[in-house]
Amino acid sequence: MRPIPRALHLLLIPAICVGDPVVAGFAGHDAHRVSASVAISLTRAVWMWSSVPVGQDNLVSSHALLEWYNARGVKEHDLNPDLHAYEGGDNEHQVLELNVKPPSGEGALSAGHWTGVSQPLSPVGVDLTKIQFIEIWINDFSPGHLATQGLLKINLGRVSEDAFWDPANIPNNKLDSEDKNADGRLDGGDNQLFAEDTGLDGLFDEQEPGYDPSTNPDPNGDDYAYIFNVADYSHINNFERNGNDDPSARPDTEDLNRDGILDEDNAYFEATIDLSDTQYVALDVPQVYAGDPDVKADNGWRLFRIPISDETFTRVGFAAWENVQAIRIWVDGMAEPLRLQVGGISLRGDAQSEAAPKIVLYQNYPNPFNPRTVIPYYLPKDGPVRLAVFDVSGRLVYQVSYALQFAGTHEAVWTGRDSAGRPVASGVYVYSLEAGGRRLTRRMVMAK
User: Does 327 have pLDDT greater than 60?
Assistant: First the structure.
């Protein structure tokens, strides 16, 4: 039985974009309780440099350099090779790419180096007591994975806001923000007394020590620079003048919960994924589809599914699942520069109850057909699925699908051929869906 990764499942579940606490719908006086599934935003701009995780060295020499960006070119069928073009297989799949390099002045990465990014979920906290597990899609560009040295950590809770955003200096125990007048807007203008798009150092280039327009135009190295479709991301996460082309830009700030003070509390849950191990792997695309000509040589996509339990998540400080304000992903334990793509992060909620919707088998279309028809169906939960075509006497004509599939709406295609590849005759056929302990059937007509 070959499991099929439904790459779009993160888009089909009830999703909340949590990059902006107000947009997310989490704002309010009480923590928002999540009982459905929530997809974490992968948009580059909603992530911020991480503060120092508990237990890590607070040293410039320990903090690896990091570029993160939304890389182009990943298709839906890279995560789900069974997805045809007419089903959206050629559509672009959003990914967050992490490119980890040695600290400045060091030639190699070692197990003691670390780096990461954080994203706010809610200023008042999200109640995740109903969440059962976390799913994360990771591409390490290695079909075998054994050579991928690194530990990916996932933190959920409250993390210090004193971010390690300056590659040359350690966090400074103060709230770094462009929002000088605390009005929540990125104020502009030619008068530098009022303009705020300075970067987190609070200085325009001309005010930075050592400025020279010819030889040293950006002494602090914090100018934003990126050209669309050019693979140079070295300055895409810099802050100075990054709001020039965005009329709705907000001030850059370390203040994840926007309360105007530097919160340094660390109270979070932490799970660890060994990128060379199979623990928590729910689906390994290059292994499942070994030999498939549609799977690229550098396809290393895996779906990790991490249960929420005391065995998988360690508690740091006074962490509580009732009050999760941020998510942080970071890496350490590396032996060489590391490049990873994140194709989705999903917090999965309650399992389906007995009163939940059952499987549904829809009428095929077109019907009558010749020679191709589409068979839609709905699965209320993950599980094994068998979809087959029979003649009216009950003889198996063709097995369309026999696989593990994720919950959601699916479409299968039958091209009017039997198991030997021969075109079938005109007439009435029965298609059958078996899933979740139920069997549903419908009739269709091949007309020539």
Answer: yes
